[in-house]
Amino acid sequence: MATIVAEPTGIPVVEEQHEMSFIRRYVFSSDHKVIGIQFLFLSLFFLLMGGLLAMLMRWQLAWPGRPMPFGGLFPETMAPDGIMLPEFYISLVTMHGTIMVFFAIMLLLVGVFANYLIPLQIGAPDMAFPRLNMLSFWTAVPAGLIALSSFVVEGGAAGAGWTSYAPLSARPDLSGVSLGQQMWIVSLVLLGLSSILGSTNYITTVINMRAPGMTWTRMPLTVWALFITAILGLLAMPVLSGALIMLLFDQTIGTHFFLPESGGQPLLWQHLFWFFGHPEVYILILPAMGFVSEILASGSRKPVFGYKAMVGAIVAIAFLGFIVWGHHMFQSGMNPLLGTSFMVSTLVIAVPSAIKTFNWMGTMWRGNLHFHTPMLFAVGFVMLFVIGGLSGIFMASAPFDIFIHDTYFIVAHIHYVLFGGALFAIFAAIYYWFPKMFGRMMNERWGKIHFALTFIFFNLAFFPMHTQGLAGMMRRLYDTSGYTHTADLQWTHLLITISAFALFATGAIFAINFFGSMFRGEKAPPNPWNATSLEWQTPSPPKHGNWEQAPVVYHGPHEYSHPDVTDKDWLAQNERPDIVSPAGH
Amino acid sequence: MNWSLPENIATYGGKIDAVFWVITVVTAIAFVLVEVGIIWFCVKYRRREGHRAFYTHGSKSLEVLWTAVPALAMVALGFYSANVWAQIKGRNSAPSESLQISVRAKQFEWNVTYAGADEVLGTSDDFSTRNQLHFPANRPILIWLESEDVLHSFFIPQLRVKQDAVPGMTIPVWFEATKTGDYQIGCAELCGLGHYRMRARVTIHEPAAYETWIGEQIAARNGTGRPTAVAAAADFGEVGAEAGGHPGDAAGHDHSAGGM
Amino acid sequence: MEAHAMPYYGGRTPEKGMAVYTQKVGMWVFLCSEVMFFTGLIGSYIILRFGASEAWPQPGEILNIPVTAVNTFILICSSVTMVKAFAASEMGDKRGTRLYTLATAVIGATFLGVQVYEYHHLLSHEFGPWSGLYGSTFYTMTGFHGFHVFCGVLCMTWATVKAFRGGYDGGNYRGLEVLGLYWHFVDLVWIILFTIVYLI
Q1: What is the pLDDT of residue A462?
Q2: What is the pTM of this model?
Q3: Which of A8, A124, A204 sits opposite C25 (nearest CB)?
Q4: Does C50 touch chain A (CB under 8 A)?
Q5: C29–A272: do the CB atoms touch at under 8 Å?
Q6: With a CB-CB cutoff of 8 Å, which residues 370-389 of chain A face chain B?
Q7: N or C: which end of chain B has fewer CB within 10 A?
């Protein structure tokens, strides 16, 4: 074994690749930065698609049975005379959830930022397996296209909800959807494969590719969050894949996994789905927490308050995330004693979430707060995530969940967490890292307008759903007007729909700013935010291979306003300490 | 216009509503603390020229405090909730003298079977109604919930009861109403394209009136030989509830089903 | 700052010792995912079997245990040749590397052949994935294992070609070591599946 020791372990610093065709450079690129940006365009496209589906649903809910504008564009099987059919509405419900969860938010958080940021922030030249990374992207693309194209096949898109509870999802004769449901399955199996390949890559990269001096406790919280997220994806995704394939077999080759007529168990699907699904929920929020921690520190010009507790909270949330899945199933017919234990583990998960929230406040406390757009979105994230987190306590309590399970209260909760939480953090991250990605700044004024309008319309659109839920309005109803106990709440649907339209329109401000700044934005300096982590110590955008020479790390990740540094209020991770190394790291 | 929970008519409903109010108070405190804190910090510590942030990596004692307090609150809430949960949904929580009724859900209707005069299910004098559930107030009711095809969920908001119906399982659900009146069963679990119109009428009688109703049903069944289920459905005026029936015609207009 | 390009040492300083090489870490990580995949399948099997209302067929009632026992032995042999191939490559034994990679690929393919024969036999006796929970779980679990062996055989075929071209000469054993990890994992899964599906 003596010969090995002499060898370098990882990939050597990449030699400059001069001649690359357009296709190798921008389409089948193995550069993590290009792949990250490819994921960005892909996932923003799906965000738009998911949003459009939501707008159609909102129309139906506010004006049930009224012809939609441009409704004539839809075929007879979806909306004859522009009036939406119930089966089309259920397809919209299903595909809005599927596209947003799997192809918009998850790809935005993990596909985009894990790819783009991990190598840059740990000082690596690229991912551990660049070609595997490329494969991961090019598996996600057909997955998304299959999901979208299922709308136009016979029977329409999947119609059993994004959770696709069996037996409805396994019985085309009962759902009326056969090919669409199968395409849904194939799409998610492919996406799962893409995600597993990506996770393998991220984890290996973080374990083995850190620059000299980048110890575990010097990693930026973004990297920590993405690393733990990758572990969640690695362990949860294959369980979903297995369950999906069983579901596919039930539909196609006549197996009986979830079909009770031959001894199969419908609840087994729920257990498998949520064993994946709850870690998935944390896949959708942990990276957001990482971005926000980092942007709050940079915007407050202070180190993250309680770095180690923050890391511990991420790990705790991830661990607990694997033992709480049953809280989605309190009313499913599962043994009530099991419900009790899931309730306790679920309530415990509120503790690390509380630690994170208070530490974010601690980070802002006595800071010197710069309210640039990323900081605004990060503060907005904390304010809205708190609402989503607290509303989660209501449904974590099994007895009260009896009442609010499957009502709009759940819809409100998930949107406060995934839109107010994850998507606000994603906007913060896009505004923050855009200069690094494209070498230009996004427009600040329009960014602030985008924030203000998004914040207002988001709350107007989703807060009233709490009221609807508490009144007992059930979710996934094509028309809620038939129920007497919520008959006088139709006006809330109207308010929500109008706000949702405005929220969707606000997206145009972002789109114009995003694409406009890409070409016409102000040239970005290497470090526009005076930030400390390694990616800011390279040119904007960084070259292929990231570093002329490997950076050497001397400090923790968020050394802002160190008292021994007097000429500026930040100390980059790779700045040589002429001073005494800051305490604690 | 009701801003909070709908009217409660269940004996155990008060316990569920109490859980709601306890959580509301706890979360409201946390909510105000955090939101006001953030806004206050945003104003107080906004950027000032020449100002420098206070350099700190955290505070052990503070972090222990804000770990311990939520942890204690959550554990307390857990014990409290577990107790209420066991009383309502625990395996043996249903009172022994309950009136037993069988409810079988299918796309997109609720079929209710009553024990008849002998008050024992599974005997020859059982009879069924479609999309109507009748029971007396002030007496525990035990529903044996089943499903024929896909998942459904039995939800009566005012009774604070919700339970998924799972094909292949028979799940006990119990409740006791404190007052009479007309309510609705809704389906709370997505069950197909007619999910939104899978409703049934709930009629809660005075105990004596319930006996009368049972008697009428038995008499009607014996007298005419006409299956009561069909008669009931006809009385009820349900339309568009045929499984597999094309829903396009119903596109949100079958208020006859909802206008009960 | 150091003037020369520094290799990456997993955040450690070079003096502290050697990290495991990247491909090997990657395979270990990937195998964690595979463990969860099979855990999901086996867990479902356990839940379905214990929840089944009808009696589960006795061992040997439907499946042919002796044939599969021989097949299990064949697969274990392929693990032995896999180890040999890796050891030969590590010691610079060119002939051994080629011989044993080829042997592993061939033995793996033999296992698959027997499995195909078994499927064919069962299907011709009207025992298919539609045959109750027993058929559903049997075909899904063994089928997915077979798929993994199939992928392994493809890789081993590629590795054999590479070995004959001298790709693992000169102590370049890493490819074989990483492939070996996967191969042994798939074997291990089979031993578990054989036990719970055929024997218990």
Answers
A1: 97
A2: 0.92
A3: A204
A4: no
A5: no
A6: 370-371, 379, 382-383, 386-387
A7: N
